[in-house]
Amino acid sequence: MSIWNGTRRRIHLQEVGPRDGLQAECAFVETHDKIALVDALSKSGVAKIEVTAFVSPQAIPALRDAEIVLREIEREPGVVYTALVPNVRGAERAIDARADELNLVMSASESHNLSNLRMTRDQSFGSLKTVAGIARDAGLPVNISLSCAFGCPMEGDVAEDAVLEWARRFIEEAGARGVTLCDTTGMAYPPQVARLTAAFIERWPHTELTLHFHNTRGMGLANVLAAIDAGANRFDASLGGIGGCPYAPGASGNVCSEEIVHALEWMGYDTGVDLYTLIEAAKRLPALIGHDTPSQIVKAGRRLDLHPLPADFDAIRERALQRDVASRPPN
Questions:
Q1: For residue 233, is it within any domain?
Q2: Residue 275 belongs to a domain with what CATH number?
Q3: Is 313 among the domain residues?
Q4: Considering 152, 182, 245, 256, which one is annotated as catalytic?
Q5: Is residue 322 a part of any domain in this protein?
Q6: What is the domain range of residue 81?
Q7: Residue pLDDT, tens place only, 178-226
Q8: Checking DSSP bridges between strand 234-237 and strand 3-4, what pairing results, if any?
Q9: Could you give the number of structural domains in the chain?
Q10: By mean pLDDT, which of 21-35, 145-159, 242-256, 272-286 is the weakest?
Q11: Active site residue 148
Q12: Is 0.70 topped by the overall pTM?
């Protein structure tokens, strides 16, 4: 339902393009351009921005300027500026650069976790639990993103009970304030999304739940709507629809921020986002990354972005009327 108690239901949009989007690009986006992009997103009204990742520059050179970007952005009141951190050193760097939140990542799939992070899931949990303790000592909240929560490209289906158990461990043992269930390679489908979302909310109604979908197989928006129907109200999305896990072959871009906002607004939801500002930010991307983006809203415009009449429209109409008069039978 888009209306609750006579008011429009609020859906929180969280922008991950500056991190999840840019990390997958071959071109290095200059530091000042990254800062300007985040500043534009801040003014659009999104609830949270994943600004960067504090990872090894050798692993992801596209984000080698993480400290400078996070320190020099212009922060808007009410917007949460989060950063992905993989380990203790990354956490220390992010805290020093004034992150509002630390986003930790591991996979719900053993195969993907080993391929991506070179650790078993238990090893990752032990390491990230330590990172969560560092964040707690610094007074910062922690979010855990569980990759491959809806399927693994190497194992296939991932048991829903296993996903929920890893969520429980991070909430109850590591003190995570939020959990993101990630459809890393676009394997999610609506009934599955509805089941897992409802099960999570039933167990932890006061934990901040985020859904993170990719549009790899064209089901991104359908999955967002299924999650909303199941009670979710917080979603990751990427400007222009860019992004994809560099360790997940075939995982094309995230759901597109401007497309999700456009669709939800026409369905009566309140995203708090100024769509025009978001679209203008998305239009910057091709020049920055060196290629077009998947965004259909940038290409086609909003539903009521109308086109001008042809320059000779009046003459066309006059000729049409003359034909109409000429075709009438005489009195």
A1: yes
A2: 3.20.20.70
A3: no
A4: 245
A5: no
A6: 3-300
A7: 999 999 999 999 999 999 999 999 999 999 999 999 999 999 999 999 9
A8: unpaired
A9: 1
A10: 242-256
A11: no
A12: yes
